[in-house]
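Customer escalation, tier 2.

The customer says the design service returned an amino acid string that "doesn't look like it belongs to this structure." They asked us to rerun it and document both sides in this ticket. The original C-alpha cells are below, unchanged.
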C-alpha cells in the first residue's frame, strides 16, 4: 500500500473528473448549452496525446543514439498509446461538432488536420509491420517517428 498510494490518488482524481464532467454545474451559454462538458474530456485527451507522442519521439531519438531494444519498445508503446488518445480526441471532437455545427464531420481545417496527423501515425504502425528485419525496422521506424512528431503540430494548428 505504501508504494501504490499514487494509484489510489489517480483513481480518485479520475472518478472526480468523470463525475464533475458529467454531473457538475457548467456555465449556461446559449451557444454551448451542455456541450461545454466535453471540454473536461476532449482537451485533456489532446494534451495527453501530445505528451505521449513527445515521449515516444524522445525514445526514438534515444534509440538512434544507443540502439537499445528497450528504447524502441518504449517508443512504439508510447506512440500506440498517444495514437489511441488522438483517436479518442477525434471522436470527442466529432461529438462536440455534431451538437455545435450539426454534423460530426464538417470539413473544418482543424478536424481535417487532426485526421491527417492520426493517419501519419497509423502509417508509422504500417511501416513497422511491413518489415521483418528487427534492426532495420527499429531504425526506420525511429526516423519516421521523428518525422511524424514534427508533422503533428503543423497539422493540428
Amino acid at each position: 500500500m505504501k508504494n501504490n498510494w499514487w494509484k489510489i490518488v489517480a483513481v480518485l482524481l479520475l472518478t472526480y473528473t468523470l463525475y464533475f464532467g458529467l454531473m457538475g454545474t457548467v456555465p449556461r451559454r446559449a451557444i454551448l448549452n451542455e456541450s461545454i462538458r466535453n471540454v473536461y474530456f476532449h482537451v485533456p485527451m489532446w494534451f495527453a496525446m501530445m505528451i505521449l507522442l513527445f515521449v515516444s519521439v524522445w525514445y526514438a531519438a534515444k534509440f538512434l543514439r544507443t540502439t537499445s531494444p528497450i528504447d524502441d519498445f518504449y517508443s512504439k508503446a508510447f506512440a500506440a498509446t498517444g495514437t489511441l488518445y488522438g483517436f479518442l480526441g477525434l471522436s470527442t471532437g466529432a461529438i462536440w461538432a455534431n451538437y455545435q455545427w450539426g454534423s460530426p464531420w464538417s470539413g473544418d481545417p482543424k478536424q481535417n488536420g487532426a485526421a491527417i496527423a492520426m493517419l501519419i501515425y497509423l502509417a508509422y504502425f504500417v511501416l513497422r509491420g511491413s518489415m521483418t528485419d528487427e534492426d532495420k525496422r527499429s531504425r526506420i521506424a525511429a526516423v519516421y517517428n521523428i518525422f511524424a512528431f514534427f508533422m503533428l503540430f503543423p497539422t493540428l494548428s
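Tier 2 assessment: The sequence is consistent with the input. The chain has a mean pLDDT of 90. The chain is about 80% helix and 0% strand. Sent an explanation to the customer and offered a walkthrough call.
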